[in-house]
From TrEMBL:
Residues 324-519 form the HD-GYP domain. This is HD-GYP domain-containing protein. InterPro entries: Cyclic_di-GMP/3'3'-cGAMP_PDE (IPR052020), HD/PDEase_dom (IPR003607), HD_GYP_dom (IPR037522), PilZ_domain (IPR009875). It holds the Pfam family HD_5. It comes from the Bacteria. PANTHER family: CYCLIC DI-GMP PHOSPHODIESTERASE TM_0186-RELATED. The lineage of its organism: Bacteria, Pseudomonadati, Pseudomonadota, Gammaproteobacteria, Oceanospirillales.
Amino acid sequence: MQKKNIISDRLTGLVLKRALDAASSQTGVKLQALVNDKQVADVEPIVIASLLVDREKNHLKIQLRGVSQEINAWARWTLFRLLTKHRNLLHESNSLEVLHTEIKDDKLTLTLEMPNQLVKVFNREFFRISLGQHLVLPVTLHLDNLTVEGRLVDFSAGGCRVALSPQLALYLIQPVNAPLRSTITFPNGQTLTTSFEMTYLQPQENFTHALVGCHFIHESLDDEKLFVHRTFEIEREVARLSNVQRTVKHQSPLFIAKDKKAYKNIGLEKNLSPIAALLMPQGYAIKIQTWADQLALQALMLAMNQKLKPNKLKPLAIELIEALEKDENAFRLALHQANTASINPVILHTLRVISHCFPLVFKIGIRRGMELAVMMSLLLHDLGKLSVSRQPCFNPLKLMPEKLRLMKQHQIQLLRAASALRWIPPSIGESLMVNANERLDGSGYPRGLQQDKLDALSRLVAVCKVLDCLVHGYNDPAMRWRDAYKWVHRHKHWFDMPMLKHFIRLYGLRPLCSRVVYSGGFVASVTQVGKQGEILEVVLLKSNKHPAASIGRRVNTPEEFAKLGKIKGTLGPV
């Protein structure tokens, strides 16, 4: 039997939203007055006449009806707890502060904080077994036409918890049309499959993986009995593995592995291509994956309507600042070679925009000392897109109304999160997080601001974002850098030309990872540029005269450059 208030009994995020929406149409939903966060008042719960969920303001508006004496008594309380049913079980919210009170005739209207969780009051869960580090069981979550691989953390006949990589967990924050299904695969090849409802999605305590709570929906009593039986078999195997001193030798046939190698690594990691591995600066592959995962876990907090983790976000921002200040060439070069199969495109786009925008910020008038505020704002600016798409370069104004509303809601949450951090000045937060997708002629989003309302920061980040979109071909075929520059110049009614010039002056006509074609028959990738955008080093990719011997050789002296010949043209990034 589980104890009350452990994590698996809580409804958060998407499930919490659905439960609150359902509560607004239920009868019998009640409010319990509280003396403080932990002490219930000695009064009966009050039946709610009507409940409205205001997601724009992040409030609950509740109406109570009664005689004048009751209304006046209720109005004196400043803390309440919401009592409602979900899956026919009673749930209670965290303590909710009264933000506004209005009395009119026989009605009392209370504006309350939005709950951040609902917790079961009664527990009728099955026996639950934790797998710990002793047993690894892979779990496949089926989402529409997509499958996501994870690892079983604990299991019962009624539900389980699954650990996912942060990047894969991002698939779960977008709306899913088909019923969710899970498949647990045992070492002998047998599987256990059932439909489930996601109860929560959030980072693990150590902030390395995401945890998904699954509530099983059994189709029959026989299915439920099978899951009970599997629970006891898993428990026996965990006991056998964790008590090496014991002489228990009887192993369930489920755990006699056909292929032991298949259970050592669970995930979708893929090796870098040979050229990417050649160009990736030493030690950066793991760094970039770690940075991307940290940002993905913050995005989960946002999507689940929870506060960001500043104690994790601030060290990430500081690490990125230090990496750029130490060697910004290596930073950008690594991002161009990053494993796109293992990093969400929105997050990879965000990191590349940071790599170009952050150094430029201090060349357009932003004073030193604002590094942390700028980096933090750039890290957060695109996270709202993850709730509606994996595509980083699109116009939300073309989305369906529901998706547009969801994205605006997350934008509001981002601004609140930035305000709560306190070290981000409102002007910087607004410029980089809200106005990053505005255009000079007012055709951008979210507010359609025109050029007289857009400061230098907003104009700069807009140019950096569109160049990254064009060069990496998210919507159309990828462009060469020079063609991307020309495209932006042709759209000067959208983008600020002085900011484009700043970009070209610092990064050159052939930025890092551009492929350069030389008259001597060589094709090389740019791996170092100077402070004026001049090419300082290239790595040879192929040669018409020396097909094998030239690959991987670094050229960085005037004499070696002379042997390559003159630049005949350029190709897109590697």
